[in-house]
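Z., the sequence and structure:
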Amino acid sequence: METGEQSAGPGGSNGPGLRFGCASFNQDSTSLALGTKTGYKLFSLTMVEKLDCIHESEAPDIYIVERLFSSSLVVVVSTSMPQRMNIYHFKKGTEICNYSYPNNILAVKLNRQRLVVCLEESIYIHNIKDMKLLKTLLNTPSNPTGLCALSISHSNSYLAYPGSATIGEIIVYDANNLNTLTMIPAHDSPLAALTFNASATKLASASERGTVIRVFSVPEGLRLFEFRRGMKRYVNISSLSFSPDGQFLCASSNTETVHIFKLEQLGPSGGEEAATWTAYVGKMFSAASSYFPAQVSGMMSQDRAFATVHLLTSGQRNICTLAMIQKLPRLLVATADGQLFIYNVDPLDGGECMLAHKHRLFGVDDDQCEEAESEGSEVTGPAQACPSYAATAALPASGPITATLTGYSEDGGAKKGEVIPEHEFAAGPVCLDDENEFPPINWCRDGTGGGQARRS
């Protein structure tokens, strides 16, 4: 389940009321990361009424911060060096490695197999186990917001990104096998939001108009669902997110309303769908749609929101996600003025969601980070033969090891005359295993990151 992210971008304006440069939920929505003018914060999302700040780090003008699941691996990009990506082991306060790219970094996506860096007209795909550069997609359509989505499935690692700068085409790329799977003609206007469900079998999209949200099968690219967010006005959809079970999809925008749509599930024979009036009418509309022009059949297949949330303010960016917290379904909305709202979701009847709790991400709760850090520093334990990710640090190097890599073209071969990216490796090997969920990683001293390194 790919979650939403908001960012001011390199050199961008935070806008009125924006308290932070970026915000992102991790891959399974168990933590929230904030980037600010003075550093970044990580919050644990395991309880409704208590928001634990598990880490706070000082660094100037952070506009990208991404955490890998519940591990200690964090990727950070700052406006002071927008072409450089730093990878940290935050619990030990050590830098694992860093990479520099020829242009500003607009987005970074992570899963347990791949790390993807998106620039405006190129995408870099790394093997997260050793940070080897596996593929560079050059001359991609202009993507000034860095829009892309990376699936989190163990078996599939799919990457979705715009296939056009003028219309809503989606390229679905297999980041494991390094080949293009399909192109989906999703919308008439350029794309604004993309997200995969947790199993990477569905892909949701919205365009810059923001009136229609569509869901496609992956990798076939068949249209499965079409939801109408609204017809009266165009809006800027800032985030899309599936629920962990893939049965619901939430969408937030610059309006005061957050929508939750329900994806009706069919059994293998098609006969297990709930026998409701809505389901019956939906079947009739689907059957009739093949006899109508595309414009009419498109309208017939629309569905209203299953549940909604009305925020107190509108006109500001926010991100949303659906998560299970304390065994109940919740909708989480982080707003640009530095607040986190947690709502209860009724999975049976939907309707207006009830506010369960509101947290301030700045101000009175700031001392929680200091308490969490001090408590964590006092925890000691016996040495382990193979320490967990959280207990493992990059070994301090006697001096940074810098390497430059020859550029990679679309077919994976060296591109003459271009040198990308520049990076530093931590001395190793380093064993990282993401609390026994993440495959071991080895960043070795003589690692090359893809291609032959030249020591400087």
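Helices lie at 277-289, 294-300, 367-377. Residues 12-18, 266-300, 372-456 have pLDDT under 50 and may be disordered.

Let me know what you think.
H.
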